[in-house]
Every structure is written in structure tokens, then in C-alpha cells.
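cron nightly-structures :: item 1 of 1
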Amino acid sequence: MKMMRFAAVIVILFFLTLPMECGKSKKEVKNARIKGQPAGRMKIGVSLLTRTHPFYQDLEAGMKDAADRSGYRLLVTSGEFDVARQKDQVQDFIVRKVDAMIISPCDSKSIGTAIKAANDAGIPVFTADIACLAEGVKIVSHVASDNVAGGRLGAQAIIKALNGAGKVAIIDHPEVESVIQRVKGFEDELSNWTGIQIVAKLSGHGVKDHAFRTAEDIHQSHPDLDAFFGINDDSALGALAAVEKAGKTGRVKIVGFDAVPEAREAIKAGKIYADVIQKPRDIGRTAVETIETYVTGASVPPVILIPCGLFTQEDAR
């Protein structure tokens, strides 16, 4: 009889507690589980813009360093500039029930539907290097270079290279939020200099061969051009190839963004004037560390900016 009474009490307690869990949203239950989970069980889905560029290779290395220290498991993929492919990767992370995601969007607006699906599944989403600009989505925290300040540094280098006067072209990639910020800082800084005129702003899609063709088109329209600003080093190196083909190496100044090894060698040789330096390992490490802070229940900043620097020929010696 006592055993029957004990069993009845257990059943009653089960049904009394059941409505409390059922009353919670799927997202609340998921987040509660994540925040109480041991670090060794954490699984983070990562979708990068690309894994072929040295910048993102360093960013991934920074993530791996931090994940190894915390006992997290990283599932790393990349969209390779294809937002449709990246959306499929995010959907796969949802199916695999990852505990968090880090995304470097291939398209800052189009990625929104995929991130919304992750939001609905209760998976916290973080962005690294490139922000999401889509409306109606939730990003816990965005970690990136201070791209506006970096753009200003690039402009200051152009001003110095041209002695405050000349015609400049921008090789752009406006689908990407970080580039939008770089160009904004660049244009804002140059707006203070009446002697420098921006005569063209065309997309090179962030890759060398496209940037080369874009730079050639700009040269044909503006044969008296004095300088190029490339929004990344593929853009700067593509511009350099066009300048070399035109026989204007050294006369047309080039400022890039990233300071990858190939660009540093070109700066050392005097072919590129300067590069804005980012710290991708710090970005990757900080993104994972921000997840680690978040899962403890502590608040994290919505935006974390990593300072940039400038690499010149003096630094290359």
C-alpha cells in the first residue's frame, strides 16, 4: 500500500511540473539548456564568407584556438561568396541542432531569412567580420574590425601619397556590410580635402580577377587617375595588375585593406603604397569567447570592434 501511495505522489508531481515546461517557448527551453550545458558538449556551427582567403584562414585559426581552450566543437563551412550555399549551411546547422552559430554573411541582407530560421529554432546567432543588415532578425553580438576607422586610415594614406591633391577611384563590393563601413570612413575622411576627387566607384566583387577588369575599365574612362582604394587586398592586387599592364607602376598609388603576405611584398617593393591592417585572429578568438560569456548567462555587447592599423613600406623593411 505504501508503494502505491508513493507512486501516486510521483505521478501527481510529474503532471504538476509538466505545464511549467510546456508553457515555455521553444526558444526559452533551448536557451536554458544551452546556458546550463557543460562546455565540452557545446557545438558551434560556423559559416564563413570563404576559406580560401588568408584573412578568413587567420580568423578561423583564432576561432579554433579559443574553441580548443574551452572544449567546444566547431563545425566550419564557408559560402564561398554564394549566399544560397550559405543559407543551406545554416539550415544544416539547424537540423544538426548546434548550440550556437557564427556567420560571416556572403550577402548582408539576403542571409536574413536563414538567420530568422535559426532564431525561430532557438539557436543564438553571432556574426564575425561582416554584419547582417536584414530587418526582423536577432544577432546576439557582432565582432568585427572597426571598419569605419579603417577606411579613414586608408584615406589618410591616400592623402599623404598624393600630397593632398588628385583623382581617386574606389574598387567596391557593396553587398558586404564591412565594405560599406570601410567606404563610408574613406569617403568621410576625403570629404575634408577639396583637392582630392573621387571620380569612380565600381564593384570588383572582392576577388582579384574581377577587380583587375574593373580597374581596367576605370583606367579607360579616367586615364589621368592618380590612385586606387581597394576594399580588400584582392581588390588592391587586381588594381595593381591593371596598373602594371598600363605601364603606370608607382605613378598610380594603391592603398588596400588586410595586409596579406602578397600585398606586404608589393608594399615592400613600392608597388602598393599602404594597407590597412586588420586582426582576424583576434576577431575569431573574440567571437568564440563572446559565446562562452553568453552561455554563462552574462550579458554581452551587441557590437565588439577590433582596432585597425596601417602597414607601409617602412613597416616592410
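cron nightly-structures :: done
The CA atoms of residues 293 and 300 lie 7 Å apart.
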